[in-house]
């Protein structure tokens, strides 16, 4: 089912906290829900569809619908890691197009910082019956950081990519974060500072990795008739794509992500090309994650990502393709391990003309959001959304 023009993002809200020592996960979900509904000019009583992922407590949508006291007729709890919330927005649009709901509330929240979870150092757990592949990988002590380091090392071997080129991605994010009072890292960094920060998973350094924060966000997706009644700038979903990528029995290219297929599907549905896109929100768990997505989404050829990002080409007002103008996961926040929600929110801000004046892109009418969930070097999910200012 095509979702082009069938749904609009009417409300968006990012939680201001980065360290929620005094709040539960359920409370964070409730606060972002209230914020997004207020932003849309809607109330809890208007919601008839609810969407969340594995970060929601208890039994997911069953627990949260009860906690939020919602009266809904459709729920979804898809879990594809960091791409989950792009998938859920796509599913919300499909549900609206199918008449399953009219106002879909999508919420994300988590407390990894308050709970002192070192997400990048988490090891693959052996003998997990729910994850049979882990028994093959646990002897190698794979962690999230080493998984992404594996991809970066392969990219360098294949294409001559350098640590200095990867560092430009962090530099660009820091140039944007300096204007975001809520960002965890607001100091502008240099390439030299990135490559001289401690090595965490060769060739990735500490500053190549995202921050770990508490917080969350929410969006409200509505049918066109409701969007036209609301007093908000109209942002419509015109293309979406999803793609899981596994190891294909060992026939795998570490330098290619599922974004190659999810992006192609989204472009085809939207009827646009990479050259039409004014702004990109890209999942940035590590700098290499951004580089691979840029190539797979067609903004540059495979192997040319390092050259593409060098010299500030991702910096708003300076480069060819501004990205993550809130500072992204690299500098602003990365709640739980599903940071795709905040990517959607910043894209909505750009299309509405509500981003910080120092990073707002003039005449921004077309934005792409991409999420990567799981492990880039083994199995992961990719999802792409293309949003348009009407």
Overview of the molecule:
With 390 residues, the chain is α/β, with parallel strands linked by helices. The chain has helices at residues 25-40, 61-67, 84-97, 134-137, 144-159, 163-177, 191-195, 224-229, 259-270, 287-296, 305-309, 328-331, 340-352, and strands at residues 8-14, 49-51, 74-76, 103-110, 199-201, 204-205, 215-222, 235-245, 279-282, 366-374, 380-389. The strands form 2 sheets. It has a 9-stranded mixed sheet with strand order 3-2-4-7-1-8-11-10-9, with helices on both faces. A two-stranded antiparallel sheet has the order 5-6. The protein is globular and about 55 Å long.
Descriptive tags:
390 residues; two-stranded antiparallel ribbon; 9-stranded mixed sheet; alpha/beta
What's the structural blueprint in terms of helices and strands?
Layout: E1 8-14, H1 25-40, E2 49-51, H2 61-67, E3 74-76, H3 84-97, E4 103-110, H4 134-137, H5 144-159, H6 163-177, H7 191-195, E5 199-201, E6 204-205, E7 215-222, H8 224-229, E8 235-245, H9 259-270, E9 279-282, H10 287-296, H11 305-309, H12 328-331, H13 340-352, E10 366-374, E11 380-389
Parallel strand pairs: 2-3, 2-4, 9-10
Antiparallel strand pairs: 1-7, 1-8, 4-7, 5-6, 8-11, 10-11
Helix pairs in contact: 6-10
Q: What's the end-to-end separation, in Å?
A: 21 Å
Give me the count of strands: 11
- Poorly predicted runs: none
Number of helices: 13
- How much is the radius of gyration in Å? 19 Å
**Spatial order of the strands in the main sheet?**
3-2-4-7-1-8-11-10-9
| Biggest β-sheet description | 9 strands, mixed
Structural class: alpha/beta
Q: Outline, from the CA principal axes?
A: globular
Strand content: 15-25%
- Helix residue percentage: 25-40%
Compute the average pLDDT: 94
Q: What is the H/E string?
A: EHEHEHEHHHHEEEHEHEHHHHEE
